[in-house]
Amino acid sequence: MRPIEPGDGQRSVMSSSIALSYRRTAGPRAARPIPEGHIDRGNRYSLAQRVQALTLLSEGFSIKQVESKLRIPARTVRNIRQKAHDRGYRPEEDPRILEHHVEDGLHPGRPKEIDSSVEIRLLDSVRKDRNGREKSSEVLAYEAGISPASALRILQKYGLTNVKPTRKPGLNKAQKAARFAFCHAHQHWTLEDWKNVIWSDETSVIMGIRRGTVRVWRTPDEAVDSTVIRNRWKGFSEFMFWGCFSYDKRGPCHIWRPETVAMKKEAQREIDIINAACEQDLKAEWELLTGLRRLRVTRNVRGSKPTWKFNARTGKLGRRQGNGIDWYRYWKVSQYS
Fold first, then answer.
1. Backbone angles phi, psi at 255, to 5 degrees
2. How does pLDDT run across 299-319, given as a tens digit for each residue?
3. Rounded to two decimals, what is the model's pTM?
4. Strands 161-163 and 216-218
5. Please, what is the angle between helix 74-86 and helix 63-70, to 10°?
6. DSSP labels, 87-119
7. What does the domain layout of the chain look like in residue ranges?
8. Cα–Cα distance for residue pair 42/262, rounded to 1 Å
């Protein structure tokens, strides 16, 4: 036995690689188009080549002859003949070759875990009513038995985006101009300047209607769908909240409860005491202001003589009719703050 010399393994590997590359490059095959919806799984042959192979076989040519003429491997020729036979091709009965005898079979690949029924059920849950429109992707995924990521992919696949419902129009040109003018006028203010500013705002809190973070799932063409629109209605309870803050301080917060009949009577009694104590001082002030007018009337000057009447015009305190927070309730809170 000849001993193995250095380099023998390299020569054998090199020779095998050359032979392999030769086999791959020998006899180039014509590329054929991939049918729509099918997966490319390697070398493919056009429908014309398959028809030619079946025609030659039906005319009596052997598989080796077909292989040499069409450059199709013998194994592939046998597969083409077997598939055509399984699909009903009988050359001795009908020599015509139909398209379904040679077309590619469907290769679906790995079956999907989420089929179309799951997608339809999820979309129906969203579009059913207004509550479905406001569901989060986590809730929709839990109801459908899939992951939140899969639920989001299905929603995005059908063009559903998460947007908030429109209840009021945007800023008009005058409002935009006013805001731009304010920013332009205060662009050079320093931090010390802004420390002297008190910022205030108000908002209405509605009980019975969700506000603020409400978002709905819809497509661009579903903007006027009844399940997407949030109508304004009167069957709710609403109250206002006012707040203010500065650079290093925050304004107080007080909640006014509805007044009872007893509370209103007590308030009126306290206001009557205040009016009785202030009436004489207010009358004296009124006499000083109207003294000249009263003097002219005594000298036959045209006009009626002013008379003292204790009412709202002369300083009498009173409460406005109806519900709400008036001066008296603000004043009572300020006494204890």
1. -110, 120
2. 555 667 788 899 988 899 998
3. 0.36
4. antiparallel
5. 110
6. TT--TTT-----HHHHSPPP---SPPSS-HHHH
7. 43-106, 114-177+191-253, 261-336
8. 92
- Cα-Cα-Cα-Cα torsion 233, 238, 242, 248, nearest 10 degrees, comes to -100
Give CA–CA dist 104/134, Å, rounded.
46
* Nearest-angstrom CA–CA distance, 101 and 47: 10
Residue 252: name the closest of 321, 335, 337 by CA: 337
Indicate the range of 28-32, 93-97, 244-248 predicted with least confidence.
28-32
What is the C-alpha to C-alpha distance for residues 22 and 24, in angstroms, rounded to an integer? 5
Task: Decide if 282 contacts 315 (C-beta within 8 A).
Answer: yes
CA dihedral 2, 7, 12, 18 (to 10 degrees): -150
Q: Which amino acid is at 49?
A: Q
- Residue 133 near residue 123 (C-beta atoms within 8 A): no
Helices assigned H by DSSP within the chain: 8-25, 47-58, 63-70, 74-86, 99-102, 116-127, 130-133, 137-144, 148-157, 173-185, 191-194, 261-298, 327-336
Does residue 50 contact residue 102 with C-beta atoms inside 8 Å? yes
The Cβ of residue 28 has, within 10 Å, a number of other Cβ atoms equal to 8
CA distance 84 to 78: 10
> In whole angstroms, what is the distance from residue 122 CA to residue 124 CA?
5
Helix 148-157 / helix 116-127 crossing angle, nearest 10 deg:
80
- Count of residues in the chain: 337
Phi, psi for 200 (deg, rounded to 5): -135, 155
Closest C-alpha among 63, 60, 105, 106 to residue 87: 105
CA dist 54 and 81 (Å) reads 6
Residue with tokens 């006014």: 256
Please calculate the CA angle 293-296-297 and round it to the nearest 5 degrees.
Answer: 90
DSSP 8-state class, residue 313: G
| Each residue's pLDDT tens digit, 109-146 | 777 778 888 999 999 999 888 788 888 888 999 988 89
Split at pLDDT 50, 70, 90, the class of 224 is confident
Q: Give the angle subtended at the CA of 239 by the CAs of 234 and 243, to the nearest 5°.
A: 145
